[in-house]
Amino acid sequence: MRPIIGRTELIATGLVLAAAGVALGLVLLLTGGDDDGGEAVQATANATATGTPFEPVDADGQAIIDLGRRSVEALPDGEWPGLYDAFAQEFRSRCTFSDFVSAGETDTADLGVLLQQIRFKYLIDVSLSGDTASAVIVGALSDDEYTIQTAYVRENSVWKIAPAPGTTGCSGFNRLSG
To answer: Which of 76, 96, 160, 175 makes an SS bond possible with 44, Cβ 3.0 to 4.6 Å?
Structure first.
């Protein structure tokens, strides 16, 4: 009697599962994966993001898009340390510049060759109210999308990245499940 699943199918299934595990592991490396709040960027893989891409109607909306894009692209562009000044004072008071740079260096090393495959796609679920805003960044790591909850605040007439709700230390963004 022939088995229902042959050896070739078992090997192919194992390879697919191994590739999925590696992809998930790399996303966890991007996010820091730990719960001690020591990483500056957190993301999680999603099959597909839902929501309509945000189209700005004014300078405030464009500033939010620009900050979202910069927060994703700073690491692969090698501009991670320069992003520190884009964060609000609340974040900088709980995460020193040296800790911030160290977290970026760790993420860079952990990602290796995949670092250059990180890219910003668009924002969804944008809410602008006075001097505060929130959004969800849709990004890509290789061919997989991920989403990040972000917050923003206007300080001295300039939009800054604020810590997302519930974050601590150098963690400024929230992974979204999905």
So the answer is: 175
